[in-house]
Structure prediction request, 99 residues.
Amino acid sequence: MNVPTSLHFHEKGASTVTLTADLGIEGARFCTETPVQPGTPVLLRLQLGPGGHVLECKGKVCWASDMDDESTAFGIRFLDLREDERELLRQYLAQAGFC
Prediction:
């Protein structure tokens, strides 16, 4: 599921706007041209649908893999989503047919 997301990488002081390549309750997968290393802390801002709720949370890059097209695929685990935010995410995924 593609969800517009703003990522801020703490260590690099860089921000990027991208779409999720996959989204779940515990985390998300992304592809970007920005090189990323496992362990990198990030701030995420997820937009749940056009005009939908915006979730902001801290995350951590759990894995990263260079792709053939010179982009990087990586997974982020959400670290501090509140239970009410998790419920909004569950509802969004269910409405989209992913739960």
